[in-house]
UniProtKB/TrEMBL annotation:
It comes from Lolium multiflorum (Italian ryegrass). PANTHER family: BRISC AND BRCA1-A COMPLEX MEMBER 2. One of its GO terms (biological process) is chromatin organization. Keywords: Apoptosis, Cell cycle, Cell division, Chromatin regulator, Cytoplasm, DNA damage, DNA repair, Mitosis, Nucleus, Repeat, Ubl conjugation pathway. GO terms for cellular component: BRISC complex; cytoplasm. This is BRISC and BRCA1-A complex member 2.
Length: 388
């Protein structure tokens, strides 16, 4: 297996461009939202060739990436590419196995047409599905009674992926990637700009053991989601249910999903609470200059005290109203020696109660800032460099 998802290799921009027909297929693949593939190195199979004709793709699999090389031939661009799979997957011969099973004519390679921009996407999707089955087969062959039971009870769940993780310094491991919550998250966040489907997965890692005991050690468990999802729901802050002795993963998933569903619905309701807080700013501070209209995570208002003009930036946490907004003041009249507007440190020591209605929350903040802005004004005046 490859390194973590964040470590997917960036594309190489040096060297000759890809042959036009090959480039069209690659661009179509990379623009497809259903499979977020990343592009690695691009190179040419011919020394001093006019066009590049091969590249590495990072293919998402089991909450990680596998790296495969796709080798076209710029001299014969109409021919389908060869594929070189990663180390440790020498037994993965998908096209041979596919043909032996009598499904060779169903492969997209049997009707390959370089003029079809979907050709590479279809090939990657086909190979990825075959790789998922290959890894399931490897795990099913492991001589571990407990793992065999886990595989038999959870692999029927739609979308689950599993893989062997060979290790040199300790027993091998088996990793499960289990999609959670059959919810349309876009409906919970109207107007959200997410380009890709948002998912929460449970990662469970079991050590491979040849001995079976009635009290097996708990797997390592972790929730993983897309970065965009974390702007709506604090996945890292979720406290996972305890793994009870004798529990199996199918049982654990049911308990986890019930708990997680309630938290996701609560996170959706929190958007409405944050929106009402932002709306309550207008009577006291005036209409916000800026505000997040979708997730309602931040807002900025303009305030005046005498002749001192300053901005108040509100960062509203996901756990609002249990957690209060973080305030930062920014002068509109004072800059430091680099010409950057002077700002205060983050402020969260003002009066607050989650039981107040939004109007009272804002009024308490307004009263607090009436005094605090004088301290900030003095700080700005002391920090302004002397004029020459």
């Amino acid at each position: 297996m490859s390194p973590s998802a964040d470590a997917a290799a960036p594309a190489s921009t040096s060297g000759p461009p890809l042959a036009p027909l090959i480039s069209a297929q690659l661009k179509f693949l990379l623009s497809n939202p259903s499979l977020p593939v990343k592009l690695g190195q691009i190179w040419s199979g011919c020394r001093n060739g006019r066009y590049a004709d091969r590249f590495t793709l990072a293919i998402p699999f089991c909450l990680d990436y596998v790296y495969w090389d796709f080798l076209y031939n710029a001299l014969y661009p109409k021919v389908a590419p060869d594929v070189v799979f990663g180390p440790g997957d020498e037994d993965f011969q998908p096209l041979v196995d596919y043909d032996d099973a009598g499904n060779g004519d169903k492969s997209c390679l049997a009707r390959w047409d370089i003029r079809d921009p979907r050709g590479l996407l279809n090939l990657v999707e086909e190979l990825r599905l075959l790789y998922i089955e290959y890894q399931k087969k490897r795990v099913a062959e492991v001589d571990d009674t407990r793992l065999k039971f886990e595989v038999d009870t959870v692999l029927a769940k739609e979308g689950i992926e599993v893989c062997m993780v060979p290790l040199t310094d300790r027993p091998d491991e088996v990793k499960f990637a289990v999609p959670l919550l059959d919810l349309d998250l876009k409906q919970l966040v109207p107007g959200c700009p997410w380009k890709f489907p948002q998912k929460i997965h449970l990662q469970a890692i079991f050590p491979v053991s040849r001995s079976y005991s009635s009290v097996s050690s708990a797997p390592r468990l972790k929730l993983i989601s897309t970065p965009e999802m974390k702007s709506f729901f604090s996945v890292d802050a979720v406290k996972l249910p305890a793994w009870v002795d004798g529990m199996c993963m199918a049982e654990y998933i049911l308990a986890l999903e019930d708990d997680l569903k309630n938290q996701v619905v609560e996170a959706s309701a929190s958007i409405g609470s944050r929106r009402r807080f932002i709306e309550a700013l207008a009577p006291a501070f005036g209409r916000p200059l800026e505000a997040d209209p979708i997730l309602c995570r931040n807002a900025t208002v303009l305030s005046i005290s005498g002749i001192f003009t300053f901005l108040v930036h509100f960062i509203i946490p996901l756990q609002f109203p249990r957690q209060q907004p973080i305030l930062t003041l920014q002068s509109s009249q004072h800059c430091n020696s680099q010409g950057i507007p002077i700002t205060s440190s983050q402020i969260n020591d003002y009066p607050w109660s989650p039981r107040w209605d939004p109007t009272e929350m804002v009024e308490r903040i307004y009263d607090f800032l009436a005094d605090e802005c004088q301290n900030f004004k003095k700080f700005c005046s002391d920090g302004v460099p002397p004029t020459k």
